[in-house]
Amino acid sequence: MTKKSLFFVALVSLLIVSCGSPSSDYCVLKGTIKGVSDGAKLELQDFWNHCKVVGTAVVKDGTFEFHPNVNAPTHVFLYQDDLQLQDFFLEEGTVIVDVDASEGDNYGPGVQGTPSNDVLYRYRLLKRQGQQEAMETLVDSVFAAEQTGPLAVMFADSHLKSAFETLGALEKLSPELAHLPFVENLKEELSLLVKTEPRADYQPHYIDLEYADVTGNPISLKSVVENPKNRYVLLDFWATWCGPCVRYFPEMKEIYAKYHEKGLEIYSVSIDSEKGKWKSFLKENNMDWISVLDDKGGRKTSKVWENYAITVIPMFLLIDGNTGEILLRDNHPDLKAVLSELLPGK
Predict the structure, then answer these.
(1) Full-model pTM
(2) pLDDT band at 267 (very low <50, low <70, confident <90, very high)
(3) Do 266 and 230 form a contact (C-beta atoms < 8 A)?
(4) pLDDT tens digits for 102-123?
(5) Angle CA(93)–CA(119)–CA(154) in degrees, nearest 5?
């Protein structure tokens, strides 16, 4: 073999080593599985990166092993066909998974081996035991330690009570996590949410909107808030197909009957696409307050929904009729308790 040929072989070998999977030295996933036959195919989907598939494996003797195609921490879901088996973090080291496919998505703690997964394991164990206070203490310890890894992302998204707090936690993330698609999208949503979310040092002002009621008459939120008769206005985003929204109506009818004469008005914005169905629902349920329809509603098509950062319904905002300030923003408020304090009396 000539020197030129030897050089070529050496170069190809070097390229093969250099261009191999970046994950092989970063993270290994080893596991045992029940309720699945040998030969079954498993798949890892990267939840924080648009659910991209980052690894596949085949079950053999009740075990499996992945060498995921990742080189930075992320949050993944383990699937067998369309069945979601478990979720956990991929991070540097060896992740150990113990999963029972017969449990489906009611899976237990199940994953250990790396620092973040060990904490998540303890958290889920406490959750199964119903130890709410211990769970909250554990979450608090993560933020007290100013965690910048995957635990901070997960707990910030699910446990911090305000958008302002959550944004603050996300700003401390390590660079490799800060630019994940999931984190960037979350920051975008939270940046909108803080504009209408009241907190101790900030009372946001309502943003005007205008839609037509059942008679086709356009009614602006401003006209309702600035009506001298209305001391408080409850802005309600909902839809007829939304079960939790509909379950609130008995309580809303009760508070409206009790507090309307004392200065409460309700302004309900529906995103139903079928106007006829919406009108029938209002009539059948005797909804006497102001109801308007945004039949092109939804975050991607409605400036109103973007302004108010509505990502879930129902969503309630209580507005002070004197100042226009938003006093409350919640998707599951205790309306009776709130209004009994604001509008006391017989």
Answers:
(1) 0.69
(2) very high
(3) no
(4) 876 667 778 999 999 999 999 9
(5) 95
Q: For residue 195, how many other CB atoms are within 10 A of its CB?
A: 15
Residue with the two structure tokens 């958008």: 163
Q: Helix H segments across the chain?
A: 3-18, 115-128, 132-144, 150-158, 163-170, 175-178, 181-193, 221-225, 243-247, 249-259, 275-284, 303-307, 335-342
Task: Compute the distance between CA of residue 244 and CA of residue 46 in angstroms, rounded to an integer.
Answer: 30
Token pair in block for residue 269: 């914005």
Provide mean pLDDT across the span 204-211.
Answer: 94
The residue behind tokens 């648009």 is 50
| Sheet strands side by side (includes 27-34) | 63-66, 27-34, 93-100, 111-112
What does the chain come to in residues?
Answer: 346
pLDDT digits (tens, 9 = 90+) for 167-181: 888 888 888 898 899
Separation between Cα atoms, residue 247 and residue 250, nearest integer Å: 7
